[in-house]
């Protein structure tokens, strides 16, 4: 009985993204989407691939640092290859999280502790999202955007929520054998050693900030590619809003909320909904193209594992064997 709601939600997420795209095509036609694809050129692909290489190394370094804080060894070279593979799967498959689950499962099994491997990935992604939220909120507070008038209230609500969570985690008792107590002890230990340790938090903060700036940079490249003529100070907060929209769990390989929010914020900023969709489309295509080394990593990995363990269809390297979330 417990599987029903999870299965339903997993099925509704890509349908939600498809519905958003359908509405956009109905209202604005396919022209903005085609313009986003046609505008892509060689320099944009090189720029996106170069920025993605930097952000991938930073993300892998963050993952390696968090995993090390939790007591799992992870060589940087292995982490970079696995992160490329993860990004490709996230971009190519519905939901946007299959690659991260796959990465956590593989690392956990290789390290001999599946649970710890999954927790390392979860905390690494949470840390990245947290730092990105700080960067985005700071941008939207300081720079003008369609949501600027509401940012004071949003910032107050976010700070209040963060303080409440911190107080609860620190004050709630975690002694005893109950499941809740065990989970709370594990969370406190993971946060203390994996995120807030003096050897981990500077790396996590700096790499996460670099990743956030890199993604926004690719968005600006996409905007320039499709012919958006606006100052970086105008486009930067719009980029942050679109990137925030990508965290909404309603997408088809990342598509859906991104294009919907881009259409809205570009129209509100006086740049036109068509330009917003074209920019978001170019951003999506550039992002997918920049993660193509992950497809190569996946193919090489499958070949190697097939050669070493022939006849094993349940290989953890296979995408189909990753549990859905």
Describe the protein in words.
The protein is mainly α and 325 residues long. Helices cover 76% and strands 0% of the residues. It has 13 helices and no strands. Helix 2 packs across helix 12, helix 3 (42-70) packs across helix 4 (76-92) and helix 3 (42-70) crosses helix 6 (114-142). It starts with a helix and ends in a 17-residue tail after the last helix. 41% of the residues are buried. The model is unreliable at 1-7 and 311-325 (pLDDT under 50).
Features:
single chain, disordered C terminus, disordered N terminus, 13 helices, mainly alpha, 325 residues
Write the layout of secondary structure elements.
Elements lengths: L2 H26 L2 H8 L3 H29 L5 H17 L5 H14 L2 H29 L8 H21 L7 H17 L5 H25 L6 H14 L11 H12 L4 H18 L1 H17 L17
Helix pairs in contact: 1-11, 2-12, 3-4, 3-6, 3-8, 3-9, 3-12, 4-5, 4-13, 5-6, 6-8, 6-9, 6-10, 9-10, 9-12, 10-11, 11-12
In short:
By secondary structure, this protein is an all-alpha fold. The protein has 13 helices and no strands. It has a domain of 211 residues.
Q: Describe the biggest sheet?
A: none
The strand count comes to: 0
Which series of helices and strands comes N to C? HHHHHHHHHHHHH
Q: Could you tell me the mean pLDDT?
A: 85
Share of residues in strands: under 5%
Q: How far apart are the first and last residues' alpha carbons, in Å?
A: 16 Å
Low-confidence stretches: 1-7, 311-325
Q: In terms of structural class, how would the helical and strand content be classed?
A: mainly alpha
Shape: globular
Rounded Rg: 21 Å
- Helix count equals 13
Percent helix among the residues? over 70%
């Amino acid at each position: 009985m417990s599987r029903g709601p999870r299965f339903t939600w997993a099925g509704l997420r890509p349908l939600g993204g498809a519905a958003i795209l359908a509405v956009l095509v109905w209202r604005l036609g396919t022209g903005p989407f085609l313009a986003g694809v046609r505008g892509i050129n060689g320099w944009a692909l090189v720029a996106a691939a170069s920025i993605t290489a930097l952000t991938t190394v930073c993300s892998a370094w963050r993952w390696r640092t968090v995993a090390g804080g939790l007591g799992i060894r992870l060589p940087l070279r292995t982490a970079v290859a696995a992160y490329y593979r993860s990004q490709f799967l996230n971009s190519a498959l519905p939901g946007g999280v299959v690659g991260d689950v796959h990465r956590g499962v593989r690392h956990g099994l290789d390290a001999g502790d599946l649970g710890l491997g999954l927790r390392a990935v979860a905390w690494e992604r949470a840390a990245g999202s947290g730092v990105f939220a700080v960067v985005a909120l700071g941008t939207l507070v300081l720079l003008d955007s369609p949501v600027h008038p509401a940012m004071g209230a949003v910032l107050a609500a976010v700070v209040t929520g963060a303080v409440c969570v911190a107080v609860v985690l620190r004050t709630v008792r975690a002694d005893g054998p109950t499941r809740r107590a065990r989970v709370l002890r594990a969370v406190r230990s993971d946060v203390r050693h994996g995120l807030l340790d003096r050897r981990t938090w500077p790396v996590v903060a700096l790499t996460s900030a670099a990743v956030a700036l890199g993604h926004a940079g690719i968005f600006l490249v996409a905007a320039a590619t499709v012919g958006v003529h606006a100052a970086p100070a105008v486009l930067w907060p719009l980029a942050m809003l679109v990137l925030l929209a990508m965290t909404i769990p309603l997408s088809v390989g990342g598509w859906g909320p991104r294009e919907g929010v881009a259409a809205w914020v570009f129209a509100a900023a006086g740049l036109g909904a068509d330009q917003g969709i074209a920019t978001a489309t170019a951003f999506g295509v550039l992002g997918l193209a920049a993660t193509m080394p992950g497809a190569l990593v996946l193919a090489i990995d499958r070949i190697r594992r097939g050669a070493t363990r022939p006849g094993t269809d349940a290989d953890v390297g296979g995408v189909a064997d990753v549990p859905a979330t």
